[in-house]
Design goal:
- By secondary structure, this protein is an alpha/beta fold.
- Helices cover 44% and strands 14% of the residues.
- The protein has three domains: 2-64; 83-343, Aspartate Aminotransferase, domain 2; 346-449, Aspartate Aminotransferase, domain 1, CATH 3.90.1150.170.
- It has helices at 2-15, 27-34, 45-56, 78-90, 101-118, 132-147, 165-173, 194-206, 229-239, 257-262, 276-279, 294-301, 332-343, 345-367, 392-408, 436-449, and strands at residues 22-23, 60-61, 125-129, 155-160, 181-184, 210-217, 242-247, 271-274, 287-291, 372-376, 382-387, 415-419, 422-428.
- The strands form three sheets. The chain has a seven-stranded mixed β-sheet with strand order 3-9-8-7-6-4-5, with helices on both faces.
- Strand 6, helix 9 (229-239) and strand 7 (242-247) form a beta-alpha-beta unit.
- It starts with a helix and ends with a helix.
- The structure holds pyridoxal-5'-phosphate.
- Pyridoxal-5'-phosphate is lined by residues 72, 131-133, 136, 164, 166, 217, 221, 246, 248-249, 275, 287.
Length: 450
């Protein structure tokens, strides 16, 4: 069975560089043609693989390809898929320490490495989640538990106008009406304005509300900006607010020297969201929440049941089910551990450093055209630019047209975002498969599309 799958996957990996960056025409027709009733009898694997690889798979954004510079890429390290295969076939249970102490320790190691990367010591902890959205939800629920009474509807949350929408979604799921979420304005570099934050907190206190949590971004999805973490941390300390840093996009740049500079102060957070399926290039399905004090996660999530063994009381024995909403789940730790052990952190550091350089080189390529302007500089590996035009409506229309023309060439895939100053094209370099050749394609396609 493995050999036929291996042949298909080998071909996919060998030809992935030459696939178009997007192939989405006919998606609706394809999806309709795949709808089917529950099959009563089986089909051969060979036939099913043909369906999957020849019909199901090709029509998509080529998110694993080197030219994917849209949204937030990652690529999907095949090493992790091997770990998943092992985890799936052995099917060990990692929700509770006693069920698989070794495998839980492997996952605990990964979390301790991440806590160390943030700058925390032995009291810190965390859990691997399905993604950054779930991590932000866990963070808000934990902040609510730590800072508010059971009757929490007076609690207000502060984030920036460019925070990821999963923050508002987390607030909603955690039981807060969206009116309790303040979107603080941005400075000219698209970072949260700390003076406006302080003013909003003061206003809410005066109105009898209970400010309790600030969510800062360490790399916004829109333009990659890093909020001023030290000043926000000072304010949170003075106001006794929980500080959550959403570093889903930017967090793993902490492995690099430039990233540590850009994210200085992140260790003062109470909780941090990381997304290994972005910055560690893992396949989708791996996010992470880490907290400075592991007990805070436990207080927010621990509920006992008679049919389960009693929770572990030793410091170094983590029951993940006691620290997150999930009980049964996949053995996510192996998927992170295997690639880090196989190639070492240095290889990831080198890759991430390269992405910082690539984004800067692409921004230079944009600057070479006087008709274009870089609107957001690459704080990390993401920047944004647009067409210069005295007429704002014209500038928007021409920027959108440029984006469409570049994507039409199907060597790189970019997305845009409307900012108050107008529509911009974003370039996010974060796939381990993206190298200088793709920046060359970007520069050529840009010149040819103007
Ligand atoms: C991607 C992202 C998220 C959401 O993470 P998912 O893994 O997609 O759930 C949250 N915040 C930021 C800053 C992100 O870039």
């Amino acid at each position: 069975m493995l050999d036929v799958v291996g042949v298909r996957l080998g071909t996919f990996l060998d030809t992935l560089d030459t696939m178009p960056a997007t192939q989405t025409d006919g998606g609706a027709r394809l999806a309709r043609s795949l709808a089917e009733p529950l099959p009563e009898t089986g089909t051969t694997l060979r036939n099913l693989l043909r369906v999957v690889f020849e019909r199901v798979m090709p029509t998509a954004l080529h998110t694993s390809g080197p030219g994917y510079l849209a949204y937030i890429p990652g690529g999907g390290l095949p090493h992790s898929a091997i770990a998943d295969l092992i985890a799936g076939i052995t099917n060990r249970y990692v929700g509770l320490w006693m069920a698989a102490p070794g495998l839980v320790q492997v996952e605990t190691n990964v979390l301790k490495w991440f806590c160390g990367m943030v700058g925390w010591g032995d009291d810190a902890g965390g859990v691997l989640t399905s993604g950054g959205s779930m991590a932000n939800l866990i963070a808000l629920v934990t902040a609510r538990r730590e800072r508010l009474p059971v009757d929490f509807l007076k609690g207000t949350i502060y984030t920036s106008a460019h925070a990821h929408h999963s923050v508002r979604k987390a607030a909603l799921i955690a039981g807060f009406p969206l009116e309790n979420v303040r979107e603080i304005g941005l400075d000219p570099s698209f970072r949260m304005r700390v003076d406006a934050l302080a003013a909003a907190i003061a206003r809410d206190r005066a109105a009898g509300l209970t400010p309790f949590c600030v969510v800062a971004s360490a790399g916004t999805t829109a333009v990659g900006a890093v909020d001023p973490l030290p000043a926000i941390a000072d304010l949170c300390a003075a106001e006794r607010l929980w500080l959550h840093v959403d570093a889903a996009y930017g967090g793993f740049f902490l492995l690099t020297e430039r990233g540590r500079e850009a994210l200085a102060g992140i260790h003062r957070a109470d909780s941090v969201t990381l997304d290994p399926h972005k910055g560690l290039f893992l396949p989708y399905g791996t996010g992470c929440i880490v907290v400075r004090d592991r007990e805070t996660l436990r207080r927010a999530h621990s509920v006992s049941a008679d049919y389960l063994p009693p929770p572990q009381t030793e410091e170094d024995r983590w029951d993940f089910a006691e620290m997150s909403p999930e009980l049964s789940r996949d053995a996510r730790g192996l998927r992170v551990w295997l690639p880090l052990k196989l190639v070492g952190a240095a290889a990831f550091r080198q890759q991430l450093d390269e992405k910082l350089d690539l984004a800067r080189s692409a921004a230079e390529a944009v600057r070479a055209h006087p008709g274009l302007e870089v609107v957001a500089e690459p704080a990390l590996s993401l920047f944004a630019f647009r067409v210069r035009d005295a007429d704002p409506a014209q500038a928007d229309a021409r920027t959108r047209k440029l984006l469409a023309a570049m994507n039409q060439r199907k060597r790189v895939f970019l997305t845009g975002v409307p900012l108050p100053g107008g529509f911009v094209i974003r370039v996010c370099v974060l796939s381990f498969r993206t190298h200088a050749a793709q920046m060359q394609s970007f520069a050529e396609d840009l010149a040819a599309s103007l």
